[in-house]
Amino acid sequence: MSENHLDEADHLKRSINWKQGAAIALGVPMLILPSLGYLPMYVSAAAILIWGISVLQGFMQSTAYAEMATTFPKASGLPGFAQHVFRTQNYKGKYDKGKLIGGFTAWSYWFGWNPILAIFAITAGSYLHGLFPALSETFTEYQLALISGLVIFTGLFIVNWFGLKDGAILGYILAAISLIPLVILAVAPFATGHVEMTNITGNWWPSDWAWDMHHILMLFGIFGIAQWSACAWETAAIYGPEYKKPSKDLPKALLACGIICFALYVLLQAAVIGVLGVEGVQAESVSPLIPVAQAVFGQAGSVITIIMLIAAMVLIIQTAYLGSSRAMHSMSSEGNLPAVFGKTNRHGTPFIAMLVIGAFNLVLISMGNAAAILAASAIGYTCANGISLFAYVKAKKHPAFANLERPFKAPKGWTHVAMIFGLFNVPLCLIGVVYLNSLEIGWTSTWVGFLVLASYLPIWLYSLHESRRAESKAAAARATDNASNHDADDREKVLDLT
Predict the structure, then answer these.
(1) What is the pLDDT of residue 39?
(2) Lower CB density within 10 Å: C or N end of the chain?
(3) Crossing angle between the packed helical segments 116-131 and 141-160, to the nearest 10 degrees
(4) What is 8-469's CATH topology?
């Protein structure tokens, strides 16, 4: 199926500027919440350094993605880049391996973002369960998670039905509700003197840490888990086809998101460790921000914090919802998913993809364990980043792409940077995440992750069959038209002779 097989009605609309793109991606800082207490369990206060390095890794990777987005302005973020670069031009065989690699990258990226909906619906249900005693008497945490997911998914579907521009407006509102209190929680503990620097300097690295293979594999896994949160602001690049001026808007959106993430990730982790100490953070590993708010603002502060966090969860669910639906649209456009997922409404919204994503996450919520879902999701996200960086290297070197216009160019020699971080992702961080998962929560999440990724092969084969069937029908229709035209010409010749 060609990249232009979709009707004009199914093309995404160029409707947003860099501020709106950044607003949609500003839910990303909330991704630190599941890991604020997780990283210190393994690396103590050095978690602050891990977050800083991971966000810098995001800058290295997103610089390559920004160039790709302006080189292929019709491609939709990481899924679109990889599919476009790896697809073999004018392939005549039965199975195009390059097309499969590109499609698998997009599927991995989709699986990296998609479960965020379930993860934060479960987390929101947990907070509501603790915040309102009346609710906890009536509903279990699972029931609240399911209700939260259903209400949030339905609400966001209705809002985003009217196009990405309205999604960006919702992003502005939720960013104000959630990011401003987040900044306050990151800064206030330092301003009020509640941060004890000895909690950080005295517990910088675990006392039993050794640079053996066990700990090195753990460290790669920690970087893989951290990347899932700290590099995710590349989602601003996925809206490449929807920016009014991609060459200018996209780099600005990425830079703005990266700076905000760097400041918040480092300050938030430093604040919770500085106030609670490493052992205190480990004791409150699910949500260490709540006791920080209690220490700084009193009991009322904890209630405000929970309300703020729930609002912020809606923002990150919005980001994931939009990103994963665009990934499915991109895959369908390239013939790597069934055509039905590329259908858009008159506002340019891939509504069928959004419906499927919402239903899939309601099923994921039944797992009931946000940490297990995150662990599986990180496998997909690590694969997507690694292969996408390899796609950047190919796009710079392959004759078919080397001379394309690049309105935004990464610094000279960036192919080496991309290759280094590509190899860092695959295989190093991928192996590390699998190893860390086996230590922390067993093999279930790893098997779930690999099974979801492996399920792409039969879906892809079906998509190929669908494409060939559509091409055969189109060829038969053209042949019929040609035959009809030929018969008409013959009749005209007979009439002329008569």
Answers:
(1) 93
(2) C
(3) 130
(4) Amino acid/polyamine transporter I (1.20.1740)
